[in-house]
Write a structure and sequence with these properties.
alpha+beta; endopeptidase fold (from Nostoc punctiforme); 7 helices; 16% strand; 6-stranded antiparallel sheet; 207 residues; Membrane-bound Lytic Murein Transglycosylase D, Chain A
């Protein structure tokens, strides 16, 4: 059978759910890094009654290799890999975010800084009152692709990804946090800083 990956899924949890192992799932899907699976991709579940052909064609008729190629064209890579770079939209976003953050150089206005950066990069999103709210909005926006990454992988991201942190990511902060990666472990919001991680991040890549 095949399973569409949902936000928050991990290979270990899915292995337990479907009565298989992480190594079996990784092998069946060509995953080199079990800590990285991409939300929205289809995952082959070994040891079950398959609804995909031996060639890897899913019920929708698109092969898993074709899905991976499509993801690469959109700026994300196949499951199990951290992309070394993203597409032109991400490049424009990173450049505009760094310029905006340097211009504002404030704290507490991360949502405003990133929203302005998105507009400057040609990826406008309606302004929202809190940073964490952008997570659900970006997840529904076809111009962005959500990926599941560990904290360490987030710190290694190339320029142009958007990191959204849940509300109360820090005590007394109900708004969460949003920033654009700049590479080398840096992020830009309303100022440039080191990437913040705390296990509650959602990551979006412009496609």
């Amino acid at each position: 059978m095949s399973y569409r990956i949902q936000r928050g899924d991990t290979l270990s949890a899915l292995a337990g759910r479907f009565g298989t192992t992480v190594s079996a799932l990784a092998k069946a899907n060509g995953i080199s890094n079990p800590d990285l699976i991409i939300t929205g991709n289809s995952l082959k579940i070994p040891g079950k009654s398959d609804d995909f052909q031996a060639s890897g064609t899913s019920r929708g008729g698109q092969s898993s290799s074709a899905q991976g190629a499509q993801g690469g064209a959109q700026g994300a890579t196949a499951m199990g890999e951290i992309p070394s770079s993203f597409g032109p939209n991400a490049g424009r976003l990173a450049s505009s975010a760094e310029a905006m953050a340097s211009s504002m150089n404030t704290t507490g206005w991360c949502a405003k800084g990133v929203n302005r950066s998105l507009a400057a990069a040609g990826l406008p999103v309606n302004p929202l009152p809190s940073a964490y709210m952008y997570g659900d909005v970006l997840a529904r926006d076809s111009r962005f692709r959500e990926v599941s990454l560990s904290d360490e992988q987030i710190r290694q991201l190339p320029p142009g990804a958007i990191i959204v942190t849940d509300a109360y990511n820090r005590p007394g902060n109900p708004h969460g946090h949003i920033a654009v990666t700049l590479g080398n472990g840096r992020e830009a919001s309303d100022h440039v800083a080191q990437i913040r991680t705390g296990g509650t991040q959602r990551v979006f890549i412009p496609v």
